[in-house]
Amino acid sequence: MNKPENKEMKFTPVDIDGVMANLKMLERMHDIVKYGIEHDLTAREVRSIINREMNQVEAAVALQNEAAREEYIRRRLGLSNKDILTDAQMAEAFDIHQNLGLTNGWYQ
Hints:
The chain is mostly helical. The chain has one domain (about 15-100). It is about 65% helix and about 0% strand. The chain has five helices and no strands. It has helices at about 15-20, 25-40, 45-75, 85-95, 95-100. Helix 2 runs antiparallel to helix 3 (about 45-75) and helix 3 packs across helix 4 (about 85-95). The protein is elongated, with a radius of gyration of 21 Å.
């Protein structure tokens, strides 16, 4: 007998720490510090380089997560990319009241 297929849609955001590990960010930071020492950069300059590179990765991951989240919501609500997605629909998609423990009726 075949098991029924689980058709529950899931949204799993990309983990920034996993992305940083895959990009070997600690090794990159080490290289930046080494470069800074070899080229007489200040600690502030080295920190600025590291921050800039980390911020770029974080921004890319945030954008990817936002796009995936919106795609998930649209699928869950049966909307196309051309449909307008309202805040109320977003809340409905995540059943925000239940997720926040607001099921006692005090919010109504």
